[in-house]
C-alpha cells in the first residue's frame, strides 16, 4: 500500500456536517475527502424539510427538547437533547450569515413549518422543500473560497489505521476501483453519512450504504443504537431508485394518507393522525402496502395548486412519474431514510478511538434515541460539526500551513459485485426492515455472512456488511419493540424508558457466527 503523510485534519465526507466542520476549523489546514464533486451524492443536499429550531418567541428550546425526548421513545440522552436545542438558534443565525436563503416574511421573521411529533411549527425552511440543497449551496460557496481547505474528490475512505488505541492514518481508494493509499494523520473526522442504501427501497443517495460506519467498526470503534433505522413513511413509490421523498411538511400543511379504497387509514392509529411519530406512520403505510392497498398521499384538498410554488422538489419528482399532484394523489411507501445508530460519540464528538471524531448521520450522539424527531438530523449535524471542530482545534493546536496532498497513481482493485449488493439490500429489506422477527433477523445474518464470504477481498463490501451485521445483530439482541425498531414477535415496549445499545463489530460477528453455523 502506498503511503503519504499530512498535517491536515482529514475530514471524510462532503455533506452538511463535513462542510460546516471544515469552515469551523479555518484557518487550520483541512483535507476534505469526497467521492463525488461537492454538492453531489450527499444526503444533506436531498433534505427537504429544513432545520428544527425554536426561532419563534412563543416557542422555546425546552419545548423542542421535550418533543425530542418523547419522539425518541425513552432512550434519548436528555442532557444531549437540552444542549443541542439550546444551540439551535445560533446555528440558524450563523447559516444565515453564511448565505443560506431561509424563507422570511415581510418583517424578516423566519417562516416555519410544522412536522410530525413537533408541538410547534419550528422547522426553518428554504423555498418550501429546498432547505438541504440551498444550505449546501451556501456552504460549498464558502468552502471553495477558503485556501486552507483542500478538496479531494473522486476518492473514498476504505479503512482506518490504528496503533495503540489511536488513529494514525486513513486509507483512501479512488472511486471506480483502485488500491488504497494510506494518508498518515493524527486527526480524522468521520462525517460520511448513513446507511439507507443498504435497503432495497431508500430515500438516500445511491452511494450511501454504511461504508463509513463499517470502516470505523472494523477499526474497533464502539457502535451505538445500530438497530434503530428510521423508515420515512412517504417515499414516493414510483419505481425510482433511490425513491424521491414527499416531505413531511406536506402532512404539516394538511395532506392526508389514504389507501386505494379512499380510506384515511391513520384514523384510529394515533391521535395525531398523519402527524404521529414517524415510526407509527411508517408501520401503518407498510401495513397498507403489504395488504395490497397501495397507500397514497393526497395533497389536493390541503394544497391544491399551491404545491407547485411551495414544494417544487416534490412536484418535479411527480412530473418524472407523470403524476400531477394538483389533481392526483402521490403513491407512497415506507423507505429507509435515516440511521439513528452509528459510531458512538461523547458530547464533543470524540469516539472510542483516540484521534477519531464523528458527526452527522454516521455518529450516534444520543440525540435521536429510538426514533429521530423530524428535521433534528440537520440540526445535530450542525451542532456536532462545530463541537468536533472545536475539540480537534484544541487537541492539535496551531498548525502551520500544510502542503497540498497529491495522490499517486494506484493499481486496480476489486469493486463490489453488483449482484452481491443487490442480495445485501434484499436481505436487509426482508429481514431487518420495518417489521422484524427473530427468525427473519437470523436469516438476514446468515445471508450477510454468505455475501461477505463471496467476495472477501473487497474492502468496500466488507465495510457495508460490517454495518449490516451490526444493525441485524443489535436488532436481534434488543428483546422488545421501541421506536423505529419493531419486533412483531416481541411487540411490547419494556417500560417508558430503556437503555441505549452498544456493540462492537467483534460482538456482532460472534452473534452472526452462531447462526451461520446452523446452516453447515
Q: Low-confidence segments, ≥5 residues, pLDDT <50? A: none
Distance between the termini: 36 Å
CATH topology descriptor of the domain at 232-336: Flavocytochrome C3, Chain A, domain 1
Helix content: 25-40%
What would CATH call the class of the domain at 232-336? Answer: Alpha Beta
Largest sheet: 5 strands, parallel
Give the topology.
Elements: E1 2-5, E2 9-12, H1 16-25, E3 30-34, H2 43-46, E4 51-52, H3 61-71, H4 78-97, E5 112-113, E6 123-124, H5 131-143, E7 149-153, E8 155-163, E9 166-174, E10 181-184, E11 188-190, H6 211-218, E12 223-224, E13 229-236, H7 249-252, E14 256-258, H8 278-290, E15 296-298, H9 306-310, H10 312-320, E16 330-339, E17 342-344, E18 356-358, E19 363-364, H11 376-396, H12 418-431, H13 438-454, H14 459-477, E20 502-503, H15 505-516
Amino acid at each position: 500500500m502506498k503511503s503519504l503523510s499530512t498535517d491536515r485534519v482529514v475530514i471524510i465526507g462532503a455533506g452538511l456536517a463535513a462542510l460546516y466542520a471544515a469552515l469551523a476549523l479555518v484557518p487550520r489546514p483541512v483535507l476534505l475527502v469526497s467521492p463525488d464533486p461537492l454538492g453531489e451524492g450527499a444526503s444533506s443536499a436531498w433534505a427537504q424539510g429544513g432545520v428544527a429550531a425554536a426561532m419563534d418567541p412563543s416557542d422555546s428550546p425546552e419545548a423542542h427538547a421535550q418533543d425530542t425526548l418523547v419522539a425518541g421513545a425513552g432512550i434519548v440522552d436528555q442532557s444531549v437533547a437540552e444542549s443541542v436545542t439550546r444551540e439551535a438558534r445560533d446555528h440558524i443565525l450563523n447559516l444565515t450569515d453564511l448565505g443560506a436563503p431561509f424563507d422570511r416574511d415581510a418583517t424578516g421573521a423566519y417562516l416555519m413549518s410544522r412536522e410530525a411529533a413537533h408541538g410547534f411549527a419550528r422547522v426553518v425552511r428554504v423555498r418550501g422543500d429546498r432547505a438541504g440543497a440551498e444550505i449546501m449551496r451556501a456552504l460549498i460557496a464558502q468552502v471553495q473560497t477558503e485556501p486552507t481547505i483542500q478538496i479531494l474528490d473522486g476518492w473514498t475512505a476504505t479503512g482506518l489505521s490504528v496503533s495503540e488505541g489511536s488513529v494514525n492514518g486513513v486509507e483512501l481508494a479512488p472511486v471506480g476501483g483502485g488500491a488504497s493509499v494510506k494518508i498518515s494523520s493524527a486527526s480524522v473526522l468521520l462525517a460520511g453519512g448513513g446507511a439507507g442504501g443498504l435497503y432495497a427501497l431508500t430515500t438516500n443517495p445511491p452511494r450511501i450504504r454504511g461504508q463509513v460506519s463499517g470502516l470505523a467498526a472494523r477499526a474497533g470503534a464502539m457502535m451505538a443504537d445500530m438497530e434503530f433505522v428510521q423508515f420515512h413513511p412517504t417515499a414516493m413509490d414510483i419505481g425510482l431508485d433511490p425513491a424521491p421523498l414527499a416531505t413531511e411538511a406536506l402532512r404539516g400543511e394538511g395532506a392526508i394518507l389514504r389507501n386505494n379504497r379512499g380510506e384515511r387509514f391513520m384514523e384510529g392509529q394515533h391521535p395525531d393522525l398523519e402527524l404521529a411519530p414517524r415510526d407509527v406512520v411508517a408501520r401503518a403505510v407498510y401495513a397498507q402496502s403489504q395488504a395490497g392497498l397501495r397507500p397514497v398521499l393526497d395533497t389536493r384538498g390541503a394544497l391544491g395548486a399551491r404545491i407547485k410554488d411551495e414544494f417544487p422538489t416534490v412536484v418535479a419528482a411527480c412530473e418524472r412519474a407523470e403524476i400531477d399532484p394538483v389533481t392526483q394523489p402521490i403513491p407512497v411507501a415506507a423507505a429507509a431514510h435515516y440511521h439513528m445508530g452509528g459510531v458512538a460519540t461523547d458530547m464533543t464528538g470524540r469516539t472510542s478511538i483516540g484521534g477519531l471524531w464523528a458527526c452527522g448521520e454516521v455518529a450516534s450522539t444520543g440525540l435521536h434515541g429510538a426514533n429521530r424527531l423530524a428535521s433534528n438530523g440537520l440540526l445535530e449535524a450542525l451542532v456536532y460539526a462545530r463541537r468536533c471542530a472545536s475539540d480537534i482545534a484544541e487537541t492539535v493546536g496551531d498548525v502551520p500551513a500544510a502542503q497540498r496532498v497529491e495522490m499517486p497513481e494506484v493499481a486496480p482493485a476489486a469493486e463490489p459485485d453488483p449482484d452481491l449488493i443487490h442480495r445485501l439490500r434484499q436481505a436487509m429489506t426482508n429481514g431487518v426492515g420495518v417489521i422484524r422477527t427473530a427468525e427473519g433477523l437470523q436469516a438476514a445474518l446468515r445471508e450477510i455472512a454468505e455475501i461477505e464470504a463471496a467476495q472477501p477481498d473487497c474492502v468496500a463490501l466488507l465495510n457495508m456488511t460490517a454495518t449490516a451485521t451490526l444493525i441485524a445483530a443489535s436488532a436481534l439482541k434488543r428483546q422488545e419493540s421501541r421506536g423505529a425498531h419493531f419486533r412483531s414477535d416481541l411487540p411490547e415496549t419494556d417500560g417508558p424508558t430503556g437503555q441505549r445499545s452498544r456493540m462492537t463489530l467483534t460482538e456482532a460477528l460472534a452473534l452472526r457466527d452462531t447462526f451461520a453455523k446452523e446452516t453447515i
